[in-house]
Write a structure and sequence with these properties.
By secondary structure, this protein is α/β, with parallel strands linked by helices. The protein has ten helices and twelve strands. The chain has an eight-stranded parallel β-barrel. Strands 5-7 form a two-stranded antiparallel sheet. A two-stranded antiparallel sheet has the order 10-11. Helix 3 links the parallel strand 3 and strand 4.
């Protein structure tokens, strides 16, 4: 059975995200280890790291992954932005390693004023250098397939394959597939035939063994829109059937499947309860789609 979970807030400290995951009935968890909209990160104390690792161990929630900052763009044509992005990504990797996380999800990047091919090379070169500098690292880099807005890379399976090929198919790099992004990028997973063809193509170009996590999001925008707008499960252009197929696909039976759907949470609601009502509703919807043997 897939391990259902959600991206949850670290407000109040990293261990609080595990509390929220436990209260929400999550089996897996995604977090930010720092503010996603800032370059600078507060230092994690040994005490907070220890409490977080202990809470994860006692909760049984696994895998636990982080999503990196949205500011990072290692495909940037501008040298200064790329250097800043590489340094920030290195820091994110080190934080994930310290916390014992299984993966670090990252958008591959945008080629901005450069070219698509050059952008893919810059991504592969940056990741190769960062992993080479950390030969004993255990946290996997998970390239997230994107919706394809603007000059974003990673929306085509060919992009992911090109990055992996340039990295000599490093086993320290996997893929996170997002259902909203798949549809927006033009992969119609809504029908049985479209679902089958999409994953046949992914397997041929990238390899199904590279899939280490899913983001489960419905889409506000239709197939091929290349617009990344998440919607609640069953309330958007995907509907329920693609989620039913994914949740019951034996090839993905043990993988984390994580919600990134809109939340009701606010600072006030987080004080009142660890459970976001929309997360609870979406998790219930997904669990109803799992076939009982």
């Amino acid at each position: 059975m897939p391990r259902l979970g959600a991206h949850l807030s670290i407000a109040g400290g990293l261990p609080r995200a595990v509390d929220r995951a436990e209260a929400s009935g999550c089996q897996a968890l995604q977090i930010f280890t720092k503010s996603a909209g800032q370059w600078r990160a507060r230092t994690l104390s040994p005490e907070e790291i220890g409490r977080f690792r202990a809470r994860v161990a006692e909760s049984g929630i696994r895998p636990v992954v982080a999503h990196n900052s949205y500011l990072i763009n290692v495909a940037a044509a501008a040298p200064a932005l790329r250097e800043q992005s590489i340094a920030a990504l290195g820091e994110e990797i080190d934080r994930a390693e310290a916390l014992g996380l299984d993966g670090l999800v990252m958008h591959p990047g945008s080629y901005t004023t450069g070219t698509e091919d050059r952008g893919l090379t810059l991504i592969a070169d940056a990741l190769s250098a960062l992993l080479r500098a950390r030969p004993r690292g255990r946290t996997m880099i998970l390239l997230e397939q994107t919706a394809g807005q603007g000059t974003n890379l990673g929306h085509r399976f060919e992009h992911l394959a090109a990055i992996l090929d340039r990295m000599k198919r490093s086993r320290r790099v996997g893929v996170c597939l997002d259902t909203c992004h798949l549809l927006a990028a033009g992969y119609d997973i809504c029908s049985e035939d479209g679902y089958r063809r999409t994953f046949e193509e992914f397997d041929r170009l990238v390899g199904l063994d590279r899939v280490k996590a899913f983001h489960l999001n419905d889409s506000k925008k239709p197939c091929g829109s290349r617009v990344d707008r998440h919607e609640h499960i069953g309330k958007g252009c995907l509907g329920l059937e693609p989620f039913r197929m994914l949740l019951n696909d034996p090839r993905f039976a043990d993988l984390p499947m994580l919600l990134e759907t809109p939340k009701l949470e606010s600072k006030e609601s987080l004080r009142r309860s660890d459970v976001d009502p929309w997360d609870a509703r979406n998790l219930r919807t997904l669990r109803k789609l799992i076939a009982r043997v």
